[in-house]
Structure formats: C-alpha cells, structure tokens
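Good morning C.,

I know you're traveling, so I'll keep this short. The sequence:
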Amino acid sequence: MQYLYFVDRLSMFTGKAFAWCIIILTLGGSYEVFVRYLLNAPTGWAYDMSYIMYGALFLMAGPYTLSRDGHVRGDVVYRLFPQRVQAAVDMVLHLIFLLPAVCAMIYHGSLYARESWGYMEMSIFSPMGIPIYPLKTLIPVVGVLLFLQGTAEVTRCVWCIKHGYWPQRLRDVEETETAIMHQKEAEHADQLGTGGRS
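The tokens, ready to paste straight into the viewer:
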C-alpha cells in the first residue's frame, strides 16, 4: 500500500504542478488577443507558447488522470461485473496494452529527445526560433511516470483480486457532480442512521 500511495502522490504532484500551465495559457492568450486586436501589434511568441504549454499540460496530465481512475472507458458492461472481475480485466489490459506501450514510449521518446537536444531543435513555425527540445524531453519523463503509475494500478488490481474490494485512492479534487453525489449519499446514510428522524 505504501508503494501505491507514493506513486499516487508523485502523479498528483506532477499533475497539479503542470496544471499551472492553464494559467500561463490563459494569460498569454488574453495578452495576445489584446495586443493583436486592440493595439494591432501581434506577438511572435504566442503561438509557440500556446502549443508548448498545451503539450506539456497534455503529457503531464496522463499519469495524474490514471492515478485518479479518470481515463475514459466503455463501462456499460464493466460496471456490472463484481470487483474481482473488474480487477482481473483491468490487470490484463494494463499488462497487455498499457505497460508495453509505455515502455515503447520511454525508449523511442528518449531517442527522439536525445536527437532534439543534439541539434538544439528550434520551432520551424516561429520567427522567434523558440527551443522545443525541453518539451520533447517530457516524452520519456512522462513515460517513466506512466510506467510507475501503471505498475501501481496493477498492484491495485492484485489487491482487489486478493481482498475482494478496491483499495482506497487518495482524496483529491472531484467534479461537482461527483461531490454532490457523495454529499447526497452521506445525507442518506445519516437519515438511515437516525431512523429517518429530523
């Protein structure tokens, strides 16, 4: 369990750290709109900043989303399975698809990043010549984080198969709909506990 929580905390930390890219994107985009349309003086860096920040955010959100069990799945049938069956299905999918794909991402991403660093690759779409090798370095870094989170998910599946229930995930931010649902469940449990008396 310590390994699960360590990896979950690591994914949570990196995900939240890179979530600040949204603020940078918003401020940079707003500034660009202001100077382009009101001052007629567009910047040379806004496009590059937006795709580099968005790329970093998109990449680093992967391990965080996996740690929150937030990736999209077709769960029309899956959610009807007992938890042990769900865990077995998840474990097979992680071992056959996720972990090999992430290993390929680490290997090829490392080659890609090394090549980019070798000639200090600059953006070909920018008159400013903005360096993009740091962004390409994130590819193998994210691969390692995804591999760690993937092994944590396999460990979580083994736990569920053994004990019959999923181990608890770290508490974090929730969608409003989920938070309301949890609040209603707690209120319903309180009403049942007091015999329905107000």
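Safe travels,
E.
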